[in-house]
Amino acid sequence: MKRVVIVGGGITGLAAAHALEKGRERCEVQLVEAGPHLGGNVQTLRHNGFIIDAGPDSWVAAKPHATRLARAVGLGDELIGTRPDTRRVYILWQRRLHPMPEGLILGVPTEVRSLVDSELLGWDAKVRAGLDLLVPPRRWSDDDEDESIDSFVSRRLGSDVAARIAGPLLGGIFAGDPASLSVRACVPQLVAAERDHGSLVVAMRALRAERRSQAASGEGEASAFLSLKRGVGDLVLNVAHKLRDAEVFTSRAARKIDRLPEGDRRGRWVVETSAGPLHADEVVLAVPSHVAAPLVRDLDPELSLMCGATDYASAATVFLAYRKFDVRHPLDAVGFLVPRTENRPILACSFVSSKWDHRAPAGQVLLRVFVGGANDEQMVHRDDKELVRIARDQMLDLLGIDRPPMFTKVFRFMRSSPQPHVGHLARMRRLLARVATHHGLHIGGNGYIGTGIPDAIRQGEEIAARISPRGD
Ligand SMILES: Cc1cc2nc3c(=O)[nH]c(=O)nc-3n(C[C@H](O)[C@H](O)[C@H](O)COP(=O)(O)OP(=O)(O)OC[C@H]3O[C@@H](n4cnc5c(N)ncnc54)[C@H](O)[C@@H]3O)c2cc1C
């Protein structure tokens, strides 16, 4: 029987283990996780009737892998969309919260009326956004050509839309700087939209119409984002519970992987871990690439350098729970974004209990404030008390909340948000080609190709399919 060692018990490693159990060839799977529990970035805490998703709170509905996995592990009835009455976002602009124009898809306005009415943009910027219908599409000469999100959106919709709408929305997903993030790696849908429709506005309007008709016919999801009633952490728990044969070791870190001499019957690979070696025919590295880099240094220094080349930013989330009557602001949105130009110590704030049902007990509300990111890394190193003070000062200034919270929670995500800079996809193609030269070695997860939970699951499942194709 083939022996497989998976390094990393985040959602990528778990998806790989789950898919391997369903594969055609029976495999003996061992999964090693350095931390005390599984899930990596995906962590849900339950406290005083609140459900607190410390990191990811949802996934993009349009990418099917997470929804499919949730259904496969018995969570089909637990899927929830965002609350329909609060599907809007505020943006901080010149010290005031402004509603983003309605009907934005990936930062692209699809409703003329709402764009025209928006106070966020002057007339010149609105007219410039309309020129998207006329600006000729860029003809990319090859797959390695790339452009930053900021440059792409400015070229199509103008620099004001890039700075005030699309940049903060899209850059916010990566806690990164839209001027250096790759449009092809981070939002390939925009590149495809320009290629196929010549205009982002036309493409996103067509997409919106398609989504509406799919939702009306019961085929698609009404909400662009999906979560689980009791928090995204249930996905990790249920996948882990479904693993029947895999051996799962927590608090056991991989330190190095290397090849065994040809003909060694224990397999092709040895994974040195904090609790002794594990032998395997195939190894799956489901850890961020900066973690993979030292693991493969002795095996292949060039591959190690390639893995180490992607930057990762750190971020923290600060949760503030209040009694509803202590908050005068209606919290009538999913939250607000803070563009860098506003010079604030926070990146964004989610109105968690407005965005989702089930997150706070009746009469209470939950806010989540993001700090850190690529442009403000040192924030994450401040102590909890200081981060709570900063978050509360901002809530006082922006939402008028002057009452003390009922409780607070702080979570840190060190080097957890990959920064796919311009040229990332070409670098990843070279990296994966290099990995392929090592028979039985597989790499995937946070920071390679694709972003977010669905792409992590897709990569885990694709790796499993290479090791043991599905029987059905
Ligand atoms: C604050 C935050 C919010 C996010 N929000 C969203 C969201 O709303 N929606 C969305 O789709 N995505 C979101 N993401 C991205 C999402 O979390 C990731 O895409 C996904 O969780 C990546 O999973 P992974 O398994 O590849 O990596 P990780 O979650 O990083 O898991 C890797 C695992 O490997 C373990 N490990 C590390 N070193 C070793 C070692 N030497 N040996 C063994 N194990 C090791 C780690 O402890 C960890 O458990 C967010 C990320 C962050 C940081």
How would you sum up this structure, described in words?
- The protein is α/β, with parallel strands linked by helices.
- The protein folds into three domains: 167 residues, FAD/NAD(P)-binding domain (3-Layer(bba) Sandwich), CATH 3.50.50; 113 residues, protoporphyrinogen ix oxidase, domain 3, CATH 1.10.3110.10; 109 residues, Protoporphyrinogen oxidase, mitochondrial, domain 2 (Polyamine Oxidase, Chain A, domain 2).
- Helices cover 35% and strands 22% of the residues.
- It is built from 16 helices and 20 strands.
- The strands form five sheets. A seven-stranded mixed sheet has the order 8-7-16-17-18-15-19. It has a five-stranded parallel sheet with strand order 10-2-1-14-20.
- α1 packs parallel to α10 and α1 packs parallel to α16.
- The protein starts with a strand and ends in a 5-residue tail after the last helix.
- The relative contact order is 0.20.
- The chain binds flavin-adenine dinucleotide (FAD).
